[in-house]
Specification:
alpha+beta; 4-stranded antiparallel β-sheet; Jelly Rolls; 632 residues
Length: 632
């Protein structure tokens, strides 16, 4: 009767329900049962490893993890009927969590030997169990990495955990549009506010007046102070909900170049949050670096501020934030530096003779560049007549050379492969850029595909964005007509296989400067970027960043639609490993690289890395099957 009951139970839960009947019964015969009373510690972190995969038949358990070196215990997950625990301990040889029974709990115990036989003969079982645990343990592993970095401070987590409503100032200065500038200023002084909200006839916010507006529009422009405040207010009002996380608000302020944001509760104005509020919260806000950059008027002044902005990475890591959030903040600061150098170039050479657009390429174009390495950029300008061509080309030649040297001074090294606007090949009118893309797509070859890997990730950074979007629309129309081009991309993707050895281990460099190291960029990040790019181009998705591409594929008919969550977690995990590795190198004053030694990782981190690599291999196999006519 007990065996029959176990068979019925297994037939109702994945992945055991997918086994054939006789095998399921055979498996049930190898199970034993164990009772865990409420509050019992079933497995202890750093204690003996589990000899069983435990399948919860009744009850619930809590899984927690305490970072090495101390710190608060973190809840990893809760498991209940039909779910399993003990897999990582069973496979990794080390107990990384504490598991406690929250209720009286009964578990079926699958012995290690029988478990190994099962996963060895049924890959689908292995795949399901690893996928089930992947999300849980990538999150926990990320926290473990943060714990190893030896950063300080629990209050620093506030930027990423606090809601903006918790720090916003109560808004008291509200004026109507016809209120005079003088009266508005008087009210702000009396009420000790750095901004005034301007409302319309129905009380709806239509603008905001800040100290900056007074300086730039009233004092500098000589606007009569008896005139209506509507003449000098900034509009429209940028507002956020009080429940929005502070980090998202900081990012929005960076993107909009503003220092005051209205905070709403169910649509009604509740208060205002300023750059100063975030500086008080965090000690040194990204907005402060942004303001420092904007105030510079020379390269000599900009360069030290630009290099100093890298110091914010330590603060962001200290917050315990996701690696992809770090890249978003750093990308915004990098963009501001580049735009400031572009402004200095326009001042140096005079207004451009025709509209142009500065393009960020590669990881910079995807907003996935953390530590400034080399420059990846290009320039596209409006088509001109034959008579104007030489003069316009000479202007942008001198302009782009100035940019190359200016960015080097600000910490962006020159690209060794010369993918920069200072290379005449990559500083061309729109018609020539269209010809480039037409040639790469219609007549693909290995060299064309290599170029496409960096140029198809372009992003307009400054200037006339319509030039960039027209170029993107051009190649977007071409790709469906030339499937052979996607075949070339697929061929290159599947050749960069993750370093999983014959016996399932991760292979490393066997000799040379990076002996025993693993290149996280080439073997981890690059395949994931290539996967997202290939399927985005296939579906006509216009986004440039890897995560945006994956999100756009989530609801599509793509092969990746059901794998988006796993791919996003894999990308996040590998990126976080890489960021921490490079930051430690920067702090130690050693050259920054992408090679990480496996012996510096915990068993859980190594297991998570293998899981991510297996996921990449799975997608590459899907790509090989889909594009088998093009795979060489």
């Amino acid at each position: 009767m007990l065996i029959d009951e176990a068979v019925r139970f297994l037939s109702q839960i994945p992945p055991f329900q997918f086994l054939e009947g006789p095998l399921r019964r055979e498996l049930a015969q190898s199970l034993t049962m164990e009772f865990h009373p409420k509050g019992a510690v079933i497995l202890q972190q750093d204690g003996p490893v589990s000899d069983y995969l435990q399948i919860i038949q009744k009850g619930m358990v809590k899984i927690t993890h305490r970072p090495k070196g101390g710190g608060d215990e973190v809840v990893v997950d809760y498991r209940e009927r039909g779910e399993t625990f003990g897999l990582v301990s069973l496979m990794g040889g080390q107990q990384r969590t504490t598991i406690v029974a929250l209720q009286d709990t009964v578990c079926y115990l699958l012995p290690k030997g029988r478990f190994n036989e099962l996963v060895g003969s049924h890959p689908a079982i292995t795949e399901y169990l690893l996928q089930f645990h992947l999300t849980k343990y990538l999150e926990m592993t990320s926290r473990e990495i943060q714990g190893k970095s030896l950063f300080l401070g629990s209050s620093d987590h506030l930027l990423f955990t606090a809601q903006v409503g918790e720090i916003c100032q109560r808004f008291t200065t509200v004026v109507e549009a016809d209120t005079t500038i003088r009266e508005t200023a008087r009210r702000m002084v009396e009420e000790r506010q750095s901004a005034a909200l301007v409302v319309g006839p129905s009380g709806e916010p239509i603008g905001i007046l800040t100290d900056s507006d007074f300086r730039s529009k009233v004092v500098a422009e000589g606007e009569p102070i008896n005139g209506p405040v509507s003449r000098v207010m900034s509009y429209p009002v940028v507002s956020v909900d009080e429940k929005d996380p502070c980090f998202e608000v900081v990012l929005k302020m960076l993107q909009r170049d503003i220092y005051h944001v209205a905070v709403t509760r169910e649509g009604a104005i509740r208060g205002v949050v300023t750059n100063h509020d975030f500086m008080v919260l965090q000690g040194r806000s990204p907005l402060a670096f942004s303001e420092d950059i904007e105030h510079q008027t020379t390269l000599d002044g900009l360069a030290p501020v630009s290099r100093k902005a890298l110091s914010i990475i330590g603060a962001l890591l200290r917050e315990g934030t996701r690696a992809t959030n770090i890249t978003r903040i750093i990308s915004e600061l990098n963009d501001r530096v580049v735009r400031k150098v572009l402004e200095l170039a326009e001042r140096e050479f005079g207004p451009p003779p025709v509209p142009y657009c500065w393009l960020a390429l590669g990881s910079e174009g995807r907003k996935e560049q953390t530590f400034r390495t080399d420059q990846d950029n290009a320039l596209v300008y409006a088509d001109v007549s034959e008579i104007q061509r030489a003069k316009v080309a000479d202007y942008f030649r001198r302009f782009s050379v100035f940019m190359r040297h200016g960015l080097i001074q600000c910490g962006f090294e020159a690209c060794p492969a010369n993918y920069m606007a200072s290379n005449p090949d990559w500083c061309q009118p729109l018609s020539e850029w269209k010809r480039y893309f037409s040639s790469w797509i219609s007549e693909p070859n290995p060299e064309a595909v290599l170029k496409s890997l960096i140029f198809f990730d372009f992003r307009p950074l400054h200037g006339d964005g319509s030039l960039a979007w027209e170029l993107r629309e051009h190649f977007g129309r071409l790709i469906p007509d030339y499937p052979v081009f996607l075949g070339f991309l697929a061929n290159m993707l599947v050749k960069n296989r993750p370093p999983i050895g014959f016996f399932g281990g991760v292979a490393v460099e066997r000799s040379g400067e990076h002996k025993d190291g693993l290149n996280l960029k080439i073997k981890g990040v690059a395949p994931l970027v290539d996967i997202a790019r290939l399927f985005a181009l296939e579906k006509g998705i216009r986004h440039a960043s890897t995560l945006e591409r994956l999100e756009a594929l989530r609801g599509s008919t793509s092969l990746l639609a059901d794998l988006v969550d796993e791919l996003e977690y894999a990308f996040e995990f590998i990126t976080l490993l890489r960021v921490h590795h490079q930051y430690r190198q920067m702090e130690a004053g050693t050259p920054i690289d992408n090679f990480i030694r496996l012996d510096t990782l915990s068993s859980l981190e190594r297991q998570s890395l293998k899981n991510a690599f297996r996921l990449i291999l799975k997608v590459q196999d899907l790509v090989m099957d889909r594009y088998k006519a093009f795979i060489i």
